[in-house]
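Dear support,

Our group has been running a series of protein-ligand predictions, and this particular one with glycinamide ribonucleotide is the one our PI (initials K.S.) wants archived with full inputs and outputs. We had some confusion internally about which version of the output was final, so please treat the block below as the authoritative record. The input we submitted was:
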Amino acid sequence: MKRVKTAVFISGRGSNMEALIAAAKDPAYPAEIALVFSNDPQAVGLKTAVAAGIETLAIDHRPFGKDRAAHEALIDAALRERGIELVALAGYMRILTPFLTGAWAGKMLNIHPSLLPKYPGLHTHARALAAGDLEAGCTVHWVTEGVDEGPVLGQARVPILSGDDEDALSARVLAQEHKLYPASLAKAAAEMVEG
Ligand code: GAR
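Confirmed final output from the archive:
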């Protein structure tokens, strides 16, 4: 079976990456996690990926200063050298320029911890709590030029309970992220294989 060569991008803990790696252990899963990339050489998730036997690559963004495009050009070249076909952003905390989003249009997914279009950007759980929302959730979407704006591939919802704080709500949402992302990546990869 052809499996779609996928790179997962992380900036920190990498728990969503771990969920994707676990799902892709099944030979019938339509995506293969071929690379874990980080903009932070110290990202904890890189160690997890190494332990899982997956190639890792870190290109620190800091030496590039404001030149995001130069950083992205190296990332793009690294993906192409390895024959990567699909990218899954999983807690990748860099805003991408139109160069990378354009180069990977229709081939790059992101997971975001809110029910988009509600709460793009940061502090999603605090904002949902402050608004008095009764539910929260997470979204997997195709990446386009606008931050957290692309077409939605899947969503999962959780209730907001009285007494919830940011930690309680984020843990409830994260448990759903770990199911939603593997399911959404499988859907995207299967569609690519079927053409
Ligand atoms: C996840 O909750 C993910 O949805 C969020 O960062 C966390 C990363 O956790 N992403 C964003 O906020 C992107 N805007 P993880 O490293 O354990 O997967």
